[in-house]
Amino acid sequence: MSFEWSVIANNWKFLIVQGFLGFGAFGGGTLRLAIPAIVLGFILGVVIGLCRLAHRPWIHYPAVVYVEFFRGVPLVMVIFWFWFLIPQITGQRLPEYTVALTAFVVFEAAYLGEIVRAGIQSVPRGQIEAATAGGLSYGHTMLHVVLPQAIRNMIPSLVTQFIVLFKDTSLASIIGMMDLTKAAQTVSQREIRPFEMFLFIAVVYWICTYSMSCFSQWLEVKMSPERAPSKRAALRQAAETAVA
Amino acid sequence: MPLTVFLGMQYDFQWSVLWTGGRGEWLIQGIWTTLRLSALSWLFASFLGILAGALRTVPFAPLRALAAFYVEFFRNVPLLVWLFFWYFGAPQMLPRAAQDWLNVHGPEFWSAVVGLSVYHGARMSEVIRAGIQSIPKTLLEASIATGLSVGQAYRLIIIPVALRLIIPPATNESLNLLKNSSLALTIGVAELTFMSRQIETYTAKAFEALTAGTLIYLAMCLGIAFFMGQVERYFRIPGLIVRVGRAEH
User: Fold this and answer.
1) What is the ipTM, given to two decimal places?
2) What is the pTM of this model?
């Protein structure tokens, strides 16, 4: 069995510009799907997470059902549901891109909502009590005391989930959206070079997800000076202690 | 059957399509394939996970690097890409005899098993590593200080604690494997999602077919989660509160 890696160079434009970035006649695109899906999914996730923390039962329980439902069903199923439901509701067939985006936002919001909830709950109650005792209103307490600490605690899980979402965009190819996976499938069928093609896109996906995970580690260290102090900060602290 | 107004559209519900014309058997076959695929992959993935986790702690650097490469490369690439790779790409690398064996025994199913095992093995090893790392070093030191040998300390203290810490995230990861087995439909494995799609194709009753598939997945996932929750509660160590890594899927 011989390899022919030139198949990548020959189809470079179709794979990267059309499949990965989403510029071309077919629409779609892995990045063009992943970025709005992450942003919109996070916004809906914050709403779901806050609803789950609400005390009123008619806000709390629908959020619980939403989260538990979507966490118990495979994403493929959810994509098929939207593939079938959207034409039923709107009365017309929408592009695969719109269907995939809707399915991702709705599905991932359940997972992101849980992360937001855990992040807010990770802030000790004493912080809220102290802020209230200090005379801050509920809104100010949330904005200046709870959320900054909650977001810092959320970052590792949040970025992990974004990586998962990025990988999940490959499922849009199942309903025929032209993303990186679909582009590789198309090329591999035409050129009969599946080994080279799928290994190549595995590397492309890996570069994206691995750099996201490195960025998350960097951010985690940067945002929590008390957990991983830089050398200079440690020295300064030592100096201050010595002076005191 | 009466036409019902459904989301503003007229929709003719026919729930009987799920059990007439031998389609009940399709669903049961689908459930069976999903369970068989998930169970086999789970076994291999656990083995690979423990192996990779152990290799990452050995003193020999090349082995550590190999294990790290395996974990970081395989878990950071979409499972769908791996399934296509193992189904379309990898078999041509095999020797003739192995290819023949595969063609006789169903290349779809075994490619799916390999894809799921290798992908989830990498993820499982991270779960195991996180569990072991969350045990403080002082626990081992304290065990030895009370007069246990290192072997005894591991057998009686460290491993029982580690197993309990790992139960919740490992359950979560196993459920992910079960849900991810639905991707095998893309390479033609006749599992549950495949079968509900097939019912839809034959009867044009998408709502009923998708509802059946969705409810079966929900029942399996919630059932396993409930059972493992009971196990976790039964083996819980009083005073040790652990709830880690529940959100990721």
Assistant:
1) 0.85
2) 0.86
